Amino acid sequence: MVVRSSAARGGQRMIAGELMITGEPMLALPHRATDRLTTLTQGAQVLDWRSGSDQPVIWVSGLSSFEAGVAVRGGIPLCLPWFGGGPSGDPTPKHGTARISDWEEIGEHQYRLAGEPTDQFPHAWQADFSATADAETLTLRLTLTNPTEQAYAIEELAHTYLAVSDIRQVQVTGLEGVQYADKVPGAAAAQVVQSGPITFTGETDRIYASGGPITLHDPGWDRRLTAETVGASSTVVWNPWVDKAAAMADFGDDEWTGMVCLESGNVAGGALQLEPGASHTLEVRISLA
């Protein structure tokens, strides 16, 4: 199930695929709910994976507004055609237009979006996304196609929010020896090589030059989550910690302890180079152990 702060907004929870707030359904955004998955038409965003675990896997903030045209804080947003501020550092919205766009539903948890040229990204593109799941594995597939006659660079990222028992106790392995860019303001060095497992002692915002595989070790819940990818060259690891969480309107002040973002795709120096008429498929498999 999805996890959120019990204190926020009177208490939000997922029941039979419907987001509830103090017992009343409020997931007004168009969505598809089945036994294992809930996905939103806006952003083709996975909102919930009801796995075989006794503990939640996907995290969603209790302060998410679920309003049309507003990004949902949590789940698995799709960041494209740019990530963060993109190559220029200043396009809006942050993380691209796809996550706040209405996608066409073409099957059960299958979506398509035709991206039109904009001032921020002056190229047409097409995205096809699907999500499938059983009790042990969630599989995401995102195919980007360049329908134009001009080659261009494009970024993509499955921005996965995972629930954890306590961020201060978990570790991430699989990126030892990999170079990363530290994006936390005031970081001592722009490029660092990971030494040993990743642990969390403060705000973390890193872009690793590797698509994994990676494993999240959570001793508090006595479980491991492994993310394996095909077609990925980048892994982003993020937790806002105390001050940044308090500064975000859609993030509860105390929610930072219960989540971590382990994101897979092709961003920054690993951005895709799509030739005219070419396609690229990113696959992400998240498995419970």
From TrEMBL:
GO terms under biological process: carbohydrate metabolic process
Catalytic activity: alpha-D-glucose 6-phosphate = beta-D-glucose 6-phosphate
Keywords from the UniProt entry: Isomerase
Keyword Hydrolase set for record: no
Active site: 159, 263
MF annotations from Gene Ontology: carbohydrate binding; glucose-6-phosphate 1-epimerase activity
CDD domains to which the protein is assigned, alphabetical: D-hex-6-P-epi_like
Broad class of enzyme this protein falls into: isomerase
Family: Belongs to the glucose-6-phosphate 1-epimerase family.
Record-linked PANTHER family: APOSPORY-ASSOCIATED PROTEIN C-RELATED, GLUCOSE-6-PHOSPHATE 1-EPIMERASE
Protein name: Putative glucose-6-phosphate 1-epimerase
